Amino acid sequence: MASRTASKDIITLKGSAAIVSEFFGYAANSILYNRGVYPEESFGKVKKYGLPMLLTQDKAVKTFLTNLTSQLSEWLEGGKLQRIVLVIMSKATGEVLERWNFNIITDGEVVEKGAVKEKSDKEIMREIQAIMRQVNSCISFLPCLDEPCIFDVLAYTDSDTTVPFTWMESDAKLIENPQMVKLHSFDTKIHKVDTLVSYKVDDLDEQ
Amino acid sequence: LRAAFSCSRSISSGKNRAAVQRPPLQEAGSRPYMPSLSTRNPSAKCYGDRFIPDRSAMDMDVAHYLLTEGKKDKENAAASPSKEAYRRLLAEKLLNNRTRILAFRNKPPEPENVFAADTVSSHQAKPAKQRRYIPQSAERTLDAPDLVDDYYLNLMDWGSSNVLSIALGDTMYLWDASSGSTSELVTVEEDNGPITSVSWAPDGRHLAIGLNSSDIQLWDTSSSRLLRTLKGVHESRVGSLAWNNNILTTGGMDGRIVNNDVRIRDHAVQTYQGHSQEVCGLKWSGSGQQLASGGNDNLLHIWDVSMASSMPSAGRNQWLHRLEDHTAAVKALAWCPFQSNLLATGGGGSDRCIKFWNTHTGACLNSVDTGSQVCSLLWNKNERELLSSHGFTQNQLTLWKYPSMVKMAELTGHTSRVLFMAQSPDGCTVASASADETLRFWNVFGTPEVAKPAPKASHSGMFNSSFAHIR
């Protein structure tokens, strides 16, 4: 692809943290909608990343996600967040059915020295857009979730992070013998986010 | 000259007392009450300072592996699942020792409009409950003259027979909460006194008293008889006691902790050596499996009965955990009634923090700066709440919601530090004794009528609901 001289924008640590936590908020909403964790009618459409994105209108879920993303933002600014995992579990049995894993690699130099990076905002948006499209299309291969499900979010942080009082230690909620699919990643030059979904293999669909 | 000695009370002659003798445990008349003027609102934030990453702690290899692992997957879209799982488990393991996994405490709400209120799912968001009314002032105040103002002692305990025992100087008083009557159990000899610790046995009938002389007395309160005196267990005063069935664990100023089987002749069956200074906090867990001890050396030890030494000679045992996080004496200890292996501890004047521990792993789960010396801690048996008592400047009792550690109430009234707290057997009332020489009763844990057990609470002992609540 011929390189266009795209204008580069300054990315600060704070800005990058905001982009990543915002991305997670929208991604979480998308996943909850696509996987049918909450009824379709409880979502409303907004335009973001050049796509029609769905956001939950449920107050409680909104609050949960807002509190979450603000805490994620803070951890990201401190360079302490290693990954975020959105776990989907069976409501009845609590069994983990799907794990949406967002790995984060932080440029330590930026956190340490407060440097700024340059990258075109548009390009970051394009990368995120690609991921969102992929999340939407995952429906084609992910097994049907035909029972009521609930979700939770895990944050993997550095072990010396002080645990805020609204958080508590948790186990990893892993899936046994999962099938895994890696999606696109995006990079703000300060934070690189890899997306991966692992899911419980349906016995009938075993290849 | 004065005939006022008719009341059965003795004064330690070593103290300078005012000429007026106040009979103990009587209703305080018009005592000067100093309402707290300042409104404190410390934000109990736990956010640490901005993290400066330590390059040496960043594992470049793992990071690189994770980066390139992704690329490989792209080529082989349908890589075998087991390989993927192995790769990921490997990554998890590698990261495990420098990673914490955290989840938000308040879980997201369950989908669908069907709120199955009867299914107790841990992920279900609880519908908002009516907050109960917590009276802001003490329900009753009694005089406690000669209460020794010493942070390191444990001078009050409330037994399962609903009798409160409190040591004032050299004398042990028993206050029957059902009838409101006071009786004197014993006044120890001046050489042995003052009394430095008291603890009811689980049966609510036997009482252990620790003395300044290092003696430990065991009393049968139903007959007011001294059953035995344990001598030579410690080299100096016995400031803390804890019962575990028929084992009486004693903690001394000599830093030693001794398990005494009170039924047998050679009662000292085990010694825990770990503290270098006075043992001021001593509590057995609900299961009787673990013992928490706090000392003036700022250490918190967790001892496990299953780690008994196989060496017959020394009888000394290694601790399960030695926790050094507190920066002052650790006296306040409280095991959580609804979550096993959860211990709350409080630090003294230069620490002022309440810390929560997983006693299985030794991990510190949370730390909250209360702003004031923590003298005592009590868990609510019916709700997920924790009560702490403090000293300078407010001398307050603070009720916290657990685990959010939001302050639910601050009870003021005491005019000096609130050294000791004890809970009624029905779990509704808390008695607090302070250096201001008063004993106050607070209906902080709920009124008896609506008291209901928390999900995981186990009823042990003799909590007889026929005991009248103090009114």
Could you describe the 3D structure shown?
The complex is a heterodimer of chains A (207) and B (471). In chain A, 31% of the residues lie in helices and 35% in strands. Chain A has 207 residues and is α+β, with helices and mostly antiparallel strands. In chain A, strands 7-4-5-10-9 form a five-stranded antiparallel beta sheet. Chain A is globular. By secondary structure, chain B is mainly β. Chain B has a domain at 142-442: Methylamine Dehydrogenase, Chain H (7 Propeller), CATH 2.130.10. Chain B contains two helices and 30 strands. Mean pLDDT of chain B is 78; it is low at 1-20, 30-47, 71-79, 113-128, 310-315 and 450-471. Classes of the chains: A alpha+beta (207), B mainly beta (471).
- For the termini of chain B, the CA-CA separation is 38 Å
Strand count, sense and closure of the main sheet of chain B?
5 strands, mixed
Helix content of chain A: 25-40%
Quickly give the structural class of chain A: alpha+beta
CATH architecture tag of chain A: 2-Layer Sandwich
Please outline the major beta sheet of chain A.
5 strands, antiparallel
**Mean pLDDT score of chain B:** 78
Q: Uncertain runs of chain A with pLDDT below 50, 5 residues or more? A: none
Binned strand content of chain A: 25-35%
Structural features:
heterodimer, A: 207 residues, alpha+beta, Cell Cycle, Spindle Assembly Checkpoint Protein, Chain A, B: 471 residues, mainly beta, Methylamine Dehydrogenase, Chain H, 5-stranded mixed β-sheet, 4-stranded antiparallel β-sheet, 2 helices, 30 strands, 35% strand, disordered N terminus, disordered C terminus
